[in-house]
Design goal:
Elements lengths: L7 E5 L3 E4 L4 E2 L25 E9 L4 E8 L7 E7 L12 H14 L2 E5 L11 H17 L6 H6 E11 L1 H14 L8 E7 L10 H5 L8 H11 L26 E6 L5 H13 L4 E6 L10 H6 L1 H19 L2
Parallel strand pairs: 6-7, 6-8, 8-9, 9-10, 10-11
Antiparallel strand pairs: 1-2, 2-3, 4-5, 5-7
Helix pairs in contact: 1-9, 2-4
Family: Belongs to the 'GDXG' lipolytic enzyme family.
Protein name: Alpha/beta hydrolase fold-3 domain-containing protein
GO molecular function, one term: hydrolase activity
Length: 331
């Protein structure tokens, strides 16, 4: 009897290993002090620091799930809804990771909004547009909840389906833009998109930008991670010039997009192409605000270690959350 040996065909240091039989191992193998950032946080129906959470199966056929955050709001009125798409280069991370829990409990609490975070399918097993389809399916489920075809104990009683916002980190920011475009071409009444918040979206070109060549690499994003994740995540045969990762060349002039709050970081590797996107949206007459976080890099606010030890990271995180809360409150 011959036992075949599994061979590594690709690897992203610390995060992911792909084998020749198709198996993908996402066990964290980097510095052990960072492992807790990717540990799952169990849902808790009771309020902890003013926020409760639960997980919901929203499509029994596909197995699509979401994590819902409910703030302990003092108001008796309806609460805005933030639909969150996690990052991870389309290849890693889950909606229940500590790094997201740590931030999105704060965002839910400070913005007084219910957060619905989608457990997106991951590449390379599920290449794009799978994650975008999951994001859009989440909005279809919200429409069913709004129309009493589905039920969620928190959203059904407290959610304001006329004030739904899309928010996403890194590659999740790419999904925000793609889902917003899709919604602009469909009627999801009574669900209405009131705003979109891409945070450090992975907008790139095949040719390296000046910031990619000159900005410092960080634990949250290296050039190797950027290249390998996108190669695994994009449809086979695609380059980084694909519209999902390079929406800069396409016009959105005819689309009824919601107001945007684009969050960028001064030391992000991809800030140059993010700014190209910002200028393109303005040129097409779209309503878009810009928030620049000074002296920090890509997804800095997800690194709790940096928040705890570096005063500027802590300050910029607090400022970003406050600006997100202001944007939600004002739309």
């Amino acid at each position: 009897m011959v036992i075949s040996q599994r061979n590594i065909i690709d690897q992203v240091s610390g995060w992911l290993t792909v084998y020749d039989d198709g198996f993908v191992d996402r066990t964290w193998t980097g510095p052990p002090q960072f492992k807790f950032l990717s540990d799952p946080v169990p849902p808790h129906h009771h309020f902890v620091d003013g926020v409760a959470t639960h997980d919901e199966l929203i499509n029994a056929d596909s197995g699509l799930r979401v994590r819902v955050y409910l703030p302990e709001a003092s108001t008796t009125g309806k609460l805005p809804i933030l639909v969150h798409f996690h990052g991870g280069g389309f290849c890693i991370s889950q909606a229940d990771w500590f790094m997201y829990y740590n931030i999105y409990t704060r965002i839910a609490r400070e913005s007084g909004a219910i957060v619905v975070s989608t457990y997106l399918r991951l590449a390379p097993e599920h290449r794009l547009p799978a994650a975008i389809d999951d994001g859009y399916s989440t909005l279809l489920w919200l429409r069913d909840v709004a129309n009493d075809k589905m039920y969620d104990s928190w959203l059904s009683s407290k959610g304001d389906f006329n004030r739904v916002f899309l928010i996403g980190d890194s590659s999740g920011g790419n999904i925000v833009h793609q889902v917003a475009k899709r919604v602009a071409m469909e009627n999801l009444y009574p669900v209405r998109l009131a705003g979109a918040i891409p945070i450090h979206p992975g907008f790139v070109r095949s040719v390296r930008s000046k910031s990619e060549l000159e900005k410092p690499q960080s634990p949250m994003l290296t050039l190797d991670m950027l290249d390998k994740f996108l190669k695994m995540g994009l449809p086979k045969g695609s380059t980084k010039d694909h519209p999902i990762t390079c929406p800069i060349e396409e016009t959105v002039n005819g689309l009824d997009l919601p107001p945007y709050l684009l969050c960028v970081a001064e030391d992000d590797l991809v800030i140059d192409t993010e700014m190209e996107f910002y200028e393109g949206m303005k040129k097409d007459g779209k309503e878009i605000e810009l928030l620049v976080s000074d002296g920090v890099g890509h997804s800095f606010y997800l690194n709790k270690i940096a928040i705890d030890v570096d005063p500027n990271t802590s300050h910029q995180t607090r400022k970003m959350i406050q600006e997100i809360a202001r944007f939600v409150t004002s739309h």
